[in-house]
Amino acid sequence: MPSVFYNQVEGLDVIGLRSDEAEVAVLPALGSKVCSLVDRRTGREWMWAAPEGPRFARVPTASAFDEGCLLGADECIPTVAACTWAGLQMADHGEAWTEAWSVDRKALLKGSIVTTLKLPISPLEMQRAITLEGRTVRFAYELRSLSDAPFQYLWTFHPMMNIQEGDRLELPEEVRQVRVDSAFGCTLGERGDVLDWPRAAEDVDLSALDLGRAGGAVKVYTEPLKVGRAAAVNEATGDGLAFEFDTDLVNTIGLWINRGGWGGYHHFAIEPTNGAPDPLDMAAGDWNRCGELQPGQVHSWSFTITVGK
Fold first, then answer.
1. Cα–Cα distance, 305 to 130 (Å, whole number)
2. Using CA atoms, how far apart are residues 253 and 57, in angstroms rounded to an integer?
3. Residue 69 and residue 39: Cα distance in Å, rounded?
4. What are phi and psi of 230, to 5 degrees?
5. Hey, which residues does 195 pair with through a beta bridge?
6. Is 289:308 a contact under the CB 8 Å cutoff?
7. Which of 49, 287, 300, 307 is the most exposed place for a label (fewest CB within 10 A)?
8. Per DSSP, which regions of 40-148 are E strands?
């Protein structure tokens, strides 16, 4: 069993799990965000933080994402982009990332970080359990409907990660094209446009995190996958990071590549998700790619992140 450790940052509790090979840490009061994921063999910190320093303070529900703590991985639910759906005003990046999650202290004795949140706007309650075995972190979820009517939702794990020279993305062989959600500072199309993978243009290699110019950013989605896997690898350093998931409820990968186009920052994200695009109204509408819970129903799913090649 991994060891459980505790720290504080600017008065906020940090809870983590540590093995000989990997370390993961969470900030329950700030959306239960994953603030650190370290390969202890190479020393690489995968979670990105704003170079001017993250703001370790809660922001009000429905704040814009860039007003929050720009660090690590957040849970986006029930939408990724702000929109209106089911008579509710859906917040940017959803409702979970701005809230303080409760911690199951008994679970910590068994080497598991279990946090729970009743969403402040949508009729949903989510529980997430993080465990660590060797170099593999497992994230297991239960999402319960508190609604008396069917309720559609998007869920996305949104990890902003550091870029190092030589990093490359790997997607399953079935991926030959990706679909644009948004693009900034580059000529890669508009929402719904289809790009070839990985050569989206003559001077663009998405797998190399290369948008062909500085000052660009793009968010793309795969079509529904049969193989639930995506990875980042670096042959020069020996680093690697692999996401794996069952494609029953989670069948899509979102990719965010930021080379200065958003906030002037450089980072990337591999995002397991149950649908697309970012706004729930479009995912539940024209794209028809989201989850739906019946009254009182529970959806359960999981994914793993394995550090190292």
1. 11
2. 30
3. 23
4. -155, 150
5. 178
6. no
7. 300
8. 73-76, 83-85, 88-90, 102-103, 113-118, 124-133, 136-145
Q: Which two tokens stand for residue 259?
A: 């080379």
Q: Which domains does the chain have, with CATH numbers?
A: 7-307 (2.70.98.10)
- C-alpha 141/C-alpha 116 separation (Å) is 10
Please answer whether residues 212 and 186 qualify as being in contact, where contact means their C-beta atoms are separated by less than 8 angstroms: yes
| Residue pointed to by tokens 């079509």 | 223
- 308 phi and psi, to 5 degrees? 100, 155
Please name the helix (run of DSSP H) or strand (run of DSSP E) that holds residue 283, with its range, or none.
Answer: helix 280-284
**Residue keyed to tokens 């030959």:** 176
Whether the model pTM is above 0.90: yes
Identify the CA nearest to 166 among candidates 205, 199, 200.
205
CA-wise closest residue to 275 among 146, 179, 190: 179
In angstroms, the CA 89 to CA 109 distance is 39
DSSP conformation letters of 122-137: SSEEEEEEEEEETTEE
Q: Which residue's structure tokens are 């644009």?
A: 180
Q: How far is CA 171 from CA 117, 130, 144, 305, in A?
A: 32, 24, 31, 15
Q: What is the pLDDT along the chain (309 residues), one digit of tens a residue?
A: 899 999 999 999 999 999 999 999 999 999 999 999 999 999 999 999 999 999 999 999 999 999 999 999 999 999 999 999 999 999 999 999 999 999 999 999 999 999 999 999 999 999 999 999 999 999 999 999 999 999 999 999 999 999 999 999 999 999 999 999 999 999 999 999 999 999 999 999 999 999 998 899 999 999 999 999 999 999 999 999 999 999 999 999 999 999 999 999 999 999 999 999 999 999 999 999 999 999 999 999 999 999 998
Largest CA distance in the chain: 55
CA 290 to CA 250: how far, in whole Å?
10
Complete DSSP assignment for 206-225: GGGTB-SSSSEEEEEEPPPP
